[in-house]
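Friendly challenge for the regulars: who can give me the structure tokens for this chain first? No prize, just bragging rights.
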Amino acid sequence: MRNEDPHRTPRPYDKDRDGLVIGEGATTLILEEYEHALARGATIQAEIVGFGTNADGSHATQPRAETMAVALRLALDDAGLPPEAIGYVNGHGTATEWGDIAETVATASVFGARMPILSLKSYFGHTLGACGALEAWMGIEMMREGWLARTANLENVDPRCAELDYVMGEPRRLEFEHFMSNNFAFGGINTSLVFRRT
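First reply, four minutes later:
Bragging rights claimed.
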């Protein structure tokens, strides 16, 4: 445990992770029908073009990679996009052993090893009910500015995590038109969103 060294935790995807850290935060992510927003002259930050959700309910705290992967594919199908169209995955990354492993296995099964993935929870912990909106908003801002944050505290990827392009060490410049934001909750509730730059 890093109680005496709190700036070094949480450590999503890291072999020396020591578990979930609860964070505080709130976000309001306003969704509006696209044509309505255009008609009123709104500044549109991004568009949600794909959505997928499911639940396996097999265990309260041990998620299943197979069911997570279905949610990712549902979102891609809803968006009408191939996996290659996604620029990066905004991972759930709670720094829990089974969560990190299952999530990365699911992500790699859909996208392969080329996919950049990062966890914003490495900066502020798990904000529970706020995390989906908060991380989607931050992902939109990175897409608009053409860069990716590194996963803080990720130094040694757990070898049990799937092979992916973990964004670690330094932030990365990257231009992309679409990204996926994933959240995987206790009880096997999985949600995936695909955003497009406007």
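The mean pLDDT is 95. Residues 113 and 163 are 5 Å apart (CA to CA). Your move, everyone else.
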